[in-house]
Design goal:
9 helices, alpha/beta, binds zinc ion, two-stranded antiparallel sheet
């Protein structure tokens, strides 16, 4: 065989879609997946928005205008953020974090991935109750630079408010307050049936988000492995 087994294995990777209610552990799981498969590219709507904004692109202008009018960002523009990454990195395998967020986005994302010629998708859904998510939200902080949320471990770390990955400042997210969070949870619960309906049942794996991050990552690994073996 001319190809190395690693090369073949990476080309076999599906697109992975990590979904779940807010504060269910999506970032943590995506970090674990990237640690296993460095060739994956991570896609997060929030990050891509920041890039479009700093480049002052026409897409950002369209988004800015709809937000200024007090509207949600139209689904087609949210999905266009992803489509741009697909065009920019045509051979990359992607991990989508938090996209799609509703049924309309799910259909568009699914069709884009198909049109891109990727055969397999794996939807990893982090299942957690409202109470678990709300409790985690109250305790979470996020790095303002790299989006990691981990502080140094130990009884008296030297810089408890600094990110262990990049040293950036750890802060609470502005949308992590009780009323906005409750609304985000309700929206998520309302949208999830239509999101699931856009994918085949065998493409969806539900993970118990109450488990430890290690256990969640292990279950995700099994799902990815099973999909590739099947
Ligand atoms: Zn950081």
């Amino acid at each position: 065989m001319a190809q190395s087994s690693t090369e073949t294995a990476e080309a076999d990777l599906p697109f992975v879609i990590v979904l779940g209610p807010p504060a269910s552990g999506k970032s943590t799981l995506v970090r674990e997946i990237l640690a296993d498969h460095a060739s994956f590219r991570r896609f997060v709507v929030r990050h891509q928005l920041a890039r479009e904004k700093s480049n002052g692109t026409p897409l950002w202008e369209s988004i800015r205008k709809s937000v200024e009018k007090g509207r949600w960002i139209p689904d087609s523009l949210v999905v266009e953020l992803f489509a741009r990454q697909l065009r920019a990195y045509p051979s990359a395998r992607m991990v989508l974090q938090g996209l799609p967020a509703n049924g309309a986005q799910a259909v568009m994302v699914r069709d884009l991935i198909h049109a891109h010629g990727v055969r397999t998708k794996l939807v990893l859904y982090l299942d957690a109750s409202d109470d678990v998510c709300a409790m985690r939200m109250r305790h979470r902080v996020v790095c303002t630079t790299c989006d990691d949320g981990r502080a140094p471990a130990g009884a008296a770390p030297k810089a408890p408010d600094r990110c262990i990955t990049c040293g950036g400042l750890l802060e609470r997210r502005p949308d992590d307050n009780e009323s906005v969070f409750a609304q985000r949870l309700r929206t998520h619960r309302r949208n999830i049936p239509a999101i699931f309906a856009a994918f085949r049942p065998e493409e969806i794996t539900v993970l118990d988000a109450k488990a430890t991050p290690e256990a969640v990552a292990a279950s995700a690994r099994v799902a990815l492995w099973t999909l590739r073996g099947g």
